[in-house]
Amino acid sequence: MCRIKKCENTSASGSQGGSTWHHRFMAEPREITVLGETFVVSEGDTPAVLNVEWISGRNAGYGFTSNRSGNPVTDEEIEILIRAFLAQVDDRTGYIGED
User: Fold this and answer.
1) What is each CA distance from 87 to 38, 48, 52, 58, 81, in whole angstroms?
2) What is the pLDDT of residues 27-78, one digit of tens each?
3) Strand, helix or coil at 78?
4) Where are the beta strands (DSSP E) in 22-83?
5) What does the DSSP assignment read for 5-24?
6) Quick one: average pLDDT of 73-93?
7) Could you state, in order of their start, the residue ranges of all structural domains in the chain?
């Protein structure tokens, strides 16, 4: 389960609250904790881009970007993306490594 610390949730319909939000309407970055690790999720350069920065990781500024094609994003989808990212990270380096 992910824990959302700061959230200005705005769904695609414009209502506040709830677990679905549309990142093109994201008012501010959101801090999310998954598996004990903290990330900041924010809108990218375009409304279809979601930036995820791993702020509790050992490598400042490290994270990933996801193209969501303007579709609504749920907290559960963000958690799945973050879990997949963490599963690829090498414990020794803190980066996604080559096999």
Assistant:
1) 15, 24, 15, 16, 10
2) 688 999 999 999 999 988 777 788 999 999 999 889 999 887 766 677 898 9
3) helix
4) 30-34, 37-43, 49-54, 63-67, 73-74
5) EE---B-TTS-B-SSEE-GG
6) 92
7) 3-88
